[in-house]
Inverse folding.
């Protein structure tokens, strides 16, 4: 078992889940007798398929106050979901996006159709929520955790001054940089490669473009012809470093372009590895956050992701074989072992073992 997957589930006490997770979140409990009736809070509702780029089915609540507009929504991911705020201070002409630091069900589930106005005042939003705790974690791939409601009458207040803090002005708030991306909230170019963290497909590590980073890019993104062999399960292909750039460009031309919209721009892949060269590749058509095994433990504890992201080992040199390496790749449901050899014009890559559950 990999070190990043050894977290042990601990059932939180009811007292623990009632404690707000951050200083910018405050909680009060609603007296049902004083709760406003539905419809008493008049907020303008747009009957559009998307609002400020957000699909309507993801929106929890929206509202406006004194020329400011806000949309509270949950993003769309297969492994966990997070709460975000889309905010305009100029009556909808321009919008900024902010991660709230809250994960769906940990420990809040924000309610739709609340009679409370989203805006509490110019600097605070409010939203009704259930306070929940996890009773049973995910045990198998494609299974889901079990939750119970601890309190169903919470009213959260979110401090926009803290949530919108973006110390380096790169368009990503400090909370998201620290909790989700592991980038530097005080530098708009974490890896100092000249590309702003928002636009950088690998914002944490600068690409040196060497033989090993090209090997990794070929393994992850290449479409190479397999060497014809007697054993069809033992796949083998060659990466030519002399023509690498031309080969990759041609191969990528046949790959369908990814859908470009606001929600997709929020998504990033997580790859767990302690290999220095893999961390420094140049991704194609996707943003990747590379994490060490130790960092991933922290990430999983925060997000409570249902699934384990892909783990790539370091490339282990074979002691008695010159320029020969072993590479292990594992996830929840599948794994590969690669045997990699340097050749006169590049790399020979063989998949010598493959398991699936």
């Amino acid at each position: 078992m990999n070190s990043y997957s050894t977290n042990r589930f601990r059932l939180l006490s009811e007292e623990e889940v009632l404690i707000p997770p951050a200083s910018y979140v405050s909680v009060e409990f609603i007296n049902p007798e004083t709760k406003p009736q539905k419809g008493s809070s008049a907020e303008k509702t747009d009957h559009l398929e998307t609002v400020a780029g957000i699909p309507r089915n993801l929106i929890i609540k929206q509202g406006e106050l004194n020329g400011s507009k806000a949309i509270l929504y949950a993003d769309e991911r297969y492994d966990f979901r997070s709460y975000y705020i889309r905010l305009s201070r100029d009556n909808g002409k321009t919008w900024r996006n902010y991660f709230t630091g809250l994960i769906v069900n940990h420990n809040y589930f924000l309610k739709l159709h609340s009679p409370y106005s989203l805006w509490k005042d110019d600097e605070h939003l409010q939203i009704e929520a259930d306070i929940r705790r996890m009773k049973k974690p995910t045990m198998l791939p494609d299974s889901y955790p079990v939750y119970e409601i601890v309190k169903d009458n919470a009213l959260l207040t979110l401090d926009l001054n803290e949530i919108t803090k973006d110390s380096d002005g790169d368009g990503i708030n400090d909370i998201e940089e620290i909790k989700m991306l592991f980038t530097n909230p005080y530098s708009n170019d974490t890896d100092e490669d000249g590309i702003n963290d928002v636009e950088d497909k690998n914002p944490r590590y600068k690409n040196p473009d060497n033989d090993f980073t090209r090997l990794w890019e070929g393994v992850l993104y290449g479409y190479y012809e397999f060497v014809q062999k007697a054993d069809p399960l033992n796949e083998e292909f060659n990466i030519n470093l002399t023509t690498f750039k031309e080969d990759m460009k041609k191969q990528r031309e046949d790959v369908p372009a990814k859908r470009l919209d606001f929600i997709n721009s929020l998504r990033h892949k997580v790859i767990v590895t302690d290999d220095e060269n893999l961390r420094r590749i140049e991704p194609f058509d996707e943003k990747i956050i590379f994490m060490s095994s130790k960092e991933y433990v922290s990430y999983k504890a925060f997000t409570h992701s249902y699934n384990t992201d892909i783990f790539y080992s370091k490339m282990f040199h074979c002691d008695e074989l010159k320029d020969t390496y072993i590479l292990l790749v594992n996830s929840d449901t599948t794994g590969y072992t690669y045997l990699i050899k340097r050749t006169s014009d590049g790399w020979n890559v063989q998949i010598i073992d493959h398991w699936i559950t």
Residues 211-221 form the longest helix (11 residues). Helices lie at 14-17, 160-163, 174-181, 211-221, 244-253, 262-266, 276-279, 293-303. The two ends are 15 Å apart (CA to CA). The chain is about 15% helix and 35% strand.
